[in-house]
Amino acid sequence: MTADLPVRIKQCAREAGFELCGVAPIHDFAELRVFPRWIAEGRHGEMKYMQAEDESGKLKRAKLARVAPWARSVIVCAINYNTAHPYSTAFKDRNRGWISRYAWSRDDYHEAVLRRLRKIEDELPSLLDATGNGPQAAGNLESRSYVDTGPLVERVYAKYAGVGWIGKNTCIINQQLGSWLFLGVILTSLELAADIPAPDRCGTCTRCITACPTQAITAPGELDARLCISYLTIEKRGEIPSDLRAGMGRHVFGCDICQDVCPWNRKAPVTPAEEFVPRKGLVNPALDWLAEMQPEEFREVFRGSPVRRAKLSGLRRNAVVAMGNSGDKKFLPALKKLCEDADPVVAEHARWAAQALD
Ligand code: B12
Ligand code: SF4
Ligand code: SF4
Fold it and tell me: φ and ψ at 75, to 5 degrees?
């Protein structure tokens, strides 16, 4: 492959709207060897898709060569989703909940990122041709774009593509942009020159570990998803373990605390991408409005939004827990009513919340 092909690909990524793009090789990276242990310890909780196996019973996500033997490189792209709004937890109004930064927008990030990745993927044959690799190389080209759903641990490849280092909070941090980044990857059969991994700049800092309200960061770079508020409010169905509810504060969807406290986010620039402009009313929604929401309104308000993933039952459950954590007794009458709710999960959490306020 000619040396200027990665340069052209990165230029194409910038034109598609990505701030960062790098190339990672396919390798049995040390970080990936941690993954089977993570699954064996059950740290993925109920996220069954994380434990998907190939025909020989091996974990797909632990080794890319098992599921995409044709792939030779991973093009990793990152886009900034930071907006000018202050941290959601900075709002002290006890009647309102906290939604994490990535879910304030009008569009689901999966589509916004995938759309951009496909632009690059579509350009690959002509870039190959333009860099003197000939139509034959383009004819044999295989590629696949993923945002989240691919059989790989994206952050490990982002590290080896030089996009950023893996912070102690397990997020990819870029020295200039911080960590408010979505990642997207293109697996390709092209043997591209790899970038140099970004050096780890966490140093002696441990702010994220200390600030995590549920002690989910069990060691630097190690997260127990079962304890993470992001998992509890987005991925966990049914009952939230009662000993974790008080630590959830007024989070109703996701959690940003380990990134809010990170010094590398202090000067994070604001995204120019229109898709990530916050929707009115979603930065700090009223808790009683969410707790009493009906299916039709849920569909209407959250059309196209990542919040749909929690489902109506999960979002109402989360709002009820947040009411219990608000310290505001004004919610008691509403909670007493919710104790009789037709949704048994909402009703059980309402009983807990009413008790917490009493
Ligand atoms: C499952 C998942 C979750 C789960 C589990 C998170 C987790 N840390 O594993 C939950 C629901 C909790 C979650 C939460 C969030 N997520 Co998420 N999530 C994913 C998903 C789909 C898979 C992640 C995964 O494979 N985890 C497995 C574990 C083992 O991997 P890991 O935590 O990344 O750990 C690796 C490294 O830490 C590494 N390592 C590095 N250094 C060291 C040092 C030591 C000593 C050790 C032992 C290990 C180690 O080892 C591990 C690899 O085996 C990815 C997309 C993808 N396909 O990769 C998005 C992704 C990681 N999530 C993302 C985001 C934005 C979030 C949230 C910010 C959303 C929110 N605001 O609520 C939070 C952040 C919470 C956090 N601190 O991680 C982004 C991250 C972007 C970034 N800048 O890093 C991704 C990449 C999605 C995307 N396409 O943009 N997420
Ligand atoms: S997202 Fe929140 S709960 Fe999860 S590790 Fe970070 S601070 Fe802890
Ligand atoms: S808060 Fe400190 S330790 Fe945590 S990710 Fe940021 S720099 Fe690293």
Answer: -90, 120
| Active-site residue list | 148
Q: Give the model confidence (pLDDT) of 164-194 as tens digits.
A: 999 999 999 999 999 999 999 999 999 999 9
Residue 90 is predicted with a pLDDT of 87
Pocket test for ligand 2, best of 217, 226, 231, 321 (most atoms within 8 A of CB): 217
- Could you tell me the pTM of the whole model? 0.96
| Exposure letters 53-82 (e unless 16+ CB within 10 A, then b) | eeeeeebbbbbbebbbeebebbbbbbbbbb
**pLDDT tens string 306-343:** 999 999 999 999 999 999 999 999 999 999 999 999 99
Nearest to 334 by CA among 323, 349, 344, 345: 323
CB of 178 closer than 6 A to ligand 3? no
- Check: CB of residue 190 under 8 Å from CB of residue 86: no
Ligand 3 centroid–CA 201 distance in Å is 8
Q: Is 168 in the pocket of ligand 3 (CB under 6 A)?
A: yes
User: Ligand 1 centre from 3 Cα, in Å?
Assistant: 32
pLDDT of residue 311: 98
Cα torsion angle, 240, 245, 247, 250, sign: positive
- Residue 333's Cβ-count burial label (10 Å; 0-12, 13-18, 19+) is exposed
Nearest CA, atom 4, ligand 2: 228
